[in-house]
């Protein structure tokens, strides 16, 4: 089956989820070829849930002994180049890449939007770690819609979907890497069953308290902050280095990974919780609240729509 994304590009369905036209072959190659290392770290998100932020935070946590924060590679290189998407960057270019050649020193840090059920079995069997970050569906949808409509050319004569049409499709699950609920619930359930394997985070919680979430992530990844580092303010330094304000202003456009030529600023719109109120009618919001109740049921997962 086929569908359209917000700007008219084709989406294809694979194993119950919708992918941008270029992704399925790369995802299937990743699924069949990838061999996990015990030390690998996977950052998994739906698009526009704070992936860029998480990439910067985890790169900084894992590499803080190697690079001083004042000379962090983040200051000169886009987070999406430092932590590539394993499937839609690496496997897109080469279906059988050599990932053991020293180009990816340990710990290898990769990102993906691939849903839980489609991950390579070696990730599930190995002791590697997964940090999953999600965001309330209304802010995620609004961020995604703006990202495409503002940064990508429309396909042919296609008129981008209005927010109302896009919202209908989001509710039906026909958007890149959707359906939303199945994506988040897959990782939510895994985090409950295997908390040592999957750390489940929410964008809204990171916004409320970045310091304690950074410590939680560092502990989970076995890179805990020492008492001395905490006294020296390393946690605050990383938070500041990776803040919206700092990352947004860097001259680190994307040159080596897809979509090549995308401006760094495309990943930083306003970084707020609850911005959806400026675009979504109260009626649409009520529908989403009801959908959340139906879909999330008694899973224990709840979203904070207003922060
Ligand atoms: P908005 O469009 O709501 O501003 P992704 O990185 O997954 O593509 O997500 C992008 C969203 O995360 C954008 O949301 C962006 O502004 C926000 N974001 C990026 N970096 C951030 C940071 N350091 N702190 C908070 N939000 C950030």
UniProtKB/TrEMBL annotation:
Entry GO CC: cytoplasm
The kind of enzyme this is, by top-level EC class, is: transferase
All copies of domain Sulfotransferase, residue ranges: 39-300
InterPro entries, sorted: P-loop_NTPase, Sulfotransferase_dom
Transmembrane regions: none
Query: Which Pfam families does the record match to this protein?
Result: Sulfotransfer_1
GO molecular function ontology, one term from the record: sulfotransferase activity
Similarity-based family? Belongs to the sulfotransferase 1 family.
Return the protein name: Sulfotransferase
Q: From which source organism is this entry?
A: Theobroma cacao (Cacao)
């Amino acid at each position: 089956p086929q569908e359209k994304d917000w700007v008219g590009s084709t989406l294809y369905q694979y194993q119950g989820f919708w992918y941008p036209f270029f992704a399925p072959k790369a995802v299937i190659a990743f699924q069949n070829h990838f061999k996990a290392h015990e030390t690998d770290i996977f950052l998994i998100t739906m698009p526009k849930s704070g992936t860029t932020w998480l990439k910067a935070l985890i790169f900084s946590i894992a590499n803080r002994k190697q690079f001083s924060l004042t000379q962090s590679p983040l200051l000169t290189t886009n987070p999406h180049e430092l932590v590539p998407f394993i499937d839609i960057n690496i496997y897109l270019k080469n279906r059988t890449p050599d990932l053991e050649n020293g180009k990816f020193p340990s710990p290898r840090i990769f990102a993906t939007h691939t849903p839980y059920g489609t991950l390579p079995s070696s990730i599930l069997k190995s002791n590697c770690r997964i940090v999953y970050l999600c965001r309330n569906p209304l802010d995620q949808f609004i961020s995604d819609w703006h990202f495409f409509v503002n940064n990508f050319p429309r396909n042919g004569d296609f008129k981008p979907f209005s927010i109302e049409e896009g919202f209908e499709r989001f509710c039906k699950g026909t958007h890149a890497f959707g359906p939303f609920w199945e994506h988040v619930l897959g990782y939510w359930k895994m985090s409950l069953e295997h908390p040592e394997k999957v750390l489940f985070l929410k964008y809204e919680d990171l916004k409320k308290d970045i310091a304690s979430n950074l410590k939680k992530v560092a502990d989970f990844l076995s890179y805990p902050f020492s008492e001395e580092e905490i006294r020296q303010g390393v946690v605050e330094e990383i938070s500041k280095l990776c803040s919206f304000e700092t990352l947004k202003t860097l001259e680190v456009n994307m040159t080596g990974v897809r979509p090549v030529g995308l401006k760094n600023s495309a990943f930083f719109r306003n970084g707020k919780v609850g911005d959806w109120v400026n675009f979504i009618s109260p009626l649409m919001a009520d529908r989403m609240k009801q959908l959340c109740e139906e879909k999330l049921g008694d899973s224990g997962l709840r979203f904070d729509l207003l922060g």
